[in-house]
Amino acid sequence: MKTRIIMVMSLDGVIAKNSNHNPVEWTSKEDQALYKKITTEAGVMIFGQSTYEAIGRPLPGRLNIVLTRDETHQDQPGILEYKRGDLKTILQDLEHRGFEFVIIGGGTFVNSKFLEAGLVDEIQITIEPKIFGSGLRFVDQLNLDLALELISCEKLNDHTINVLYRIKK
Ligand SMILES: NC(=O)c1ccc[n+]([C@@H]2O[C@H](COP(=O)([O-])OP(=O)(O)OC[C@H]3O[C@@H](n4cnc5c(N)ncnc54)[C@H](OP(=O)(O)O)[C@@H]3O)[C@@H](O)[C@H]2O)c1
Fold it and tell me: Which fold has domain 2-167?
């Protein structure tokens, strides 16, 4: 199984001004189309509860896994499933269900936990022509020294680029 974090960020590395800030409010239609294509092909995405609340609904055509410690949420099996606990076990369960490519869809907290656990193979970032100055970063409070290999670099429109990196193991 392969895992990939997919994020869109401002030039100064901000993924959201705050926990309620939804990327669709400030990102390009080209990035949104790319995100939809890749995540639909993968078939499964993992979000933190805050990101899921910012999106506000399950993304169609994909299994939405939402991480939360709150046990009161109701699953919609195959569409929206709430999970908690060990991240490696969650990935192994998805692999047993036949998923070969899992998208980690943020936010900061979830990205950080997956990276810290060494459970990320690739990172794909769109850089939008924005500067926010402050806000949530792609990851936070980590002490890492990961080396990456560039897989691809694409210009999505006149002002937006997308890069895909593989983490060297
Ligand atoms: N620009 C982008 O590409 C992009 C992408 C994604 C998200 N975002 C933005 O990022 C912001 C949210 O990021 P965030 O860091 O505040 O929150 P987050 O990572 O989305 O969610 C954190 C929450 O996830 C739950 N959680 C995480 N790991 C868990 C585990 N192993 N077991 C159980 N629960 C777990 C906890 O929820 P409970 O407290 O419920 O237990 C935790 O409070 C939003 O504004 C969103 O729009 C931006």
Answer: Dihydrofolate Reductase, subunit A (3.40.430)
- Distance, in Å, from the CA atom of 45 to the CA atom of 57, rounded to the nearest integer, reads 13
Domain positions in the chain are 2-167
Which residue is closest in CA terms to ligand 1's atom 45?
19
The tens digit of pLDDT for each residue in 100-133 reads: 999 999 999 999 999 999 999 999 999 999 999 9
Report pLDDT digits (tens) over 7-24: 999 999 999 999 888 899
Q: What is the pTM of this model?
A: 0.97
Please tell me the residue having the least CA distance from ligand 1 atom 40.
68
**Cα 39 to Cα 4, 61, 85, distances in angstroms:** 10, 9, 23
CA 133 to chain centre: 21
